[in-house]
Write a structure and sequence with these properties.
The chain is an alpha/beta fold. Helix content is 38%, strand content 23%. The chain contains 15 helices and 15 strands. Strands 9-8-10-11-12-13-15-14 form an 8-stranded mixed beta sheet. The chain has a 5-stranded parallel beta sheet with strand order 2-3-6-1-7, with helices on one face. Strands 4-5 form a two-stranded antiparallel ribbon. Strand 2, helix 3 and strand 3 form a beta-alpha-beta unit. The protein is globular, with a radius of gyration of 24 Å. The two termini are 17 Å apart.
Length: 429
């Protein structure tokens, strides 16, 4: 897997005087991108191995370097006095602890990896790259602490285009819909092994990280249940209250809204799920307290439900959302309201949904996801919201069934989902 989009981003940002912060869910390929693909690229342009300083901070043999002061000492010891550029690769930077300043015993001042990196950036022949799996540790606030010298590159699991380019079987689409795009799955053959791997990611890595990071000592069952409820509700409008009510009705367990909201925040910080806001297309503003949640990878979502709840429309919707994020769009779920008269002449207010409102700079498009538009009545239902939107931005219906791209009398485009995912349209990367 060459991961060309991310590799090209690293090439463009090489030696730009910023800390390259590579973020994403654990096991999505960040380390491979940096330690293998980018390392090979540097070698190909003449950079020697001794100029590349690599440290995996999640390895127990490097545990002493989770102290930010020891980390700084180690890296400086590897930098020679010559003018050659040195490239510093630090994997899982969030493992570096926050410590008290040992030189100010009476002070509450803390030292973090940010202090270490800010110091290293002052060395003229050092180019720094770090990976991290927790957005709270690598948020805009942290990037600000780099004094405007942080540059984030978000890495996702394999897109469908990446997956299908390497998949050797006959049914790439159904394989991807079922097991998703976590890179290591490409090495596994049996359904049993793939299922076990995805379950193990939750039990042995993701939930363990969330509990350790947030000092949650005895709530694994609650976290498991909340992930399952979130997986079941992909594509549905929910909030903390509705999920808390689900606990009450399904698990006969009382949990307050704030706890649910906090735990969902922890999942988002670990890049497991993303919360998507509603956008009023007519009013041009975000609205309400209901959201949709999508999983970073549909295979992870399906594993939460033991591959039983396989609603194609919700899975495809999640895949489309992830693809839009990979292509660099800001994404909302759209709402369109209008007034009309019923058969008695009474005024009624109707609410319609637009699956996605995607924006990238000055570009915007509206997307509906449909299993089929072969029946005219069904097609009209799918485009009811799109044809009422009067602006000139692109309106696109992505259809699960294979269709030749075409455009109707309203200017609405129709395209097969696989064709769009493979980049065969003007919005491709």
């Amino acid at each position: 897997m060459k991961r060309p989009v991310y590799l090209e981003a690293l090439k463009r940002k090489k030696e730009n005087s910023l800390v390259k912060v590579i973020t994403g869910i654990r096991r999505c390929g960040k380390s491979y991108l940096l330690f293998t693909l980018y390392h090979e690229y540097l070698n190909s342009i003449g950079v020697k191995d001794e100029q590349i300083i690599e440290l995996a901070l999640d390895d127990d043999e490097n545990i002493q370097y989770r102290n930010p002061l020891e980390l700084g000492k180690f890296i400086r010891s590897k930098i020679s006095d010559n003018e050659k550029m040195h490239y510093v690769f630090l994997d899982e930077i969030q493992k570096v602890a926050e410590i008290k300043n040992p030189y100010l015993p009476d002070s509450e001042e803390k030292i973090t990896f940010v202090d270490t990196l800010n110091g290293l950036m002052k060395i003229k022949n050092v180019d720094i790259y770090v990976t991290g799996s927790n957005s709270k540790m690598l948020s805009s606030d942290i990037l600000t602490e780099f004094r405007g010298r942080g540059d984030e590159i978000r890495v996702h699991p394999l897109s469908y285009r990446e997956f299908s380019s390497a998949y050797m079987g006959k049914n790439a689409w159904y394989e991807y819909m079922t097991y998703g795009g976590m890179p290591f799955l490409m090495q596994l053959d049996s359904a049993q092994d793939k299922s076990k791997y995805l379950h193990d990611l939750f039990d042995k890595i993701y939930l363990s990280d969330v509990m350790a990071r947030n000092k949650i000592l005895s709530e694994k069952g609650t976290l498991d249940d909340l992930l399952d409820f979130s997986a079941s509700s992909v594509g549905s409008l929910v909030n903390a209250t509705t999920l808390a009510n689900t606990f009450k009705s399904v698990k006969k367990k009382k949990i307050d809204d704030e706890t649910v909201r906090t735990y969902l925040g922890h999942f988002a910080e670990a890049f497991m799920i993303e919360q998507v806001k509603r956008y009023d297309v007519k009013g041009k503003k975000h609205i309400g307290a209901l959201y949709k949640y999508y999983f970073e990878d549909v295979g992870l979502r399906n594993a939460r439900l033991n591959f039983r709840q396989q609603e194609e429309n919700h899975i495809i919707e999640n895949i489309v959302y992830n693809e839009l994020k990979i292509r660099g769009y800001d994404v909302d779920v759209g709402a369109y309201e209008y007034n009309s008269k019923n058969s008695l002449g009474q005024s009624i207010r109707t609410k319609l949904e637009v699956d996605f409102v995607a924006s990238r700079g000055s570009e915007k498009m509206y997307i509906q996801v449909a299993l089929s538009v072969s029946e005219e009545e069904k097609r009209q239902q799918e485009i009811n919201s799109l044809r009422r939107i009067k602006d000139s931005f692109r309106k696109l219906v992505l259809v699960k069934e294979p269709v030749l791209p075409w455009q109707d009398e309203n200017g609405i485009e129709y395209m097969g989902i696989e064709q769009w995912l493979l980049g065969n349209d003007e919005g491709a990367l």
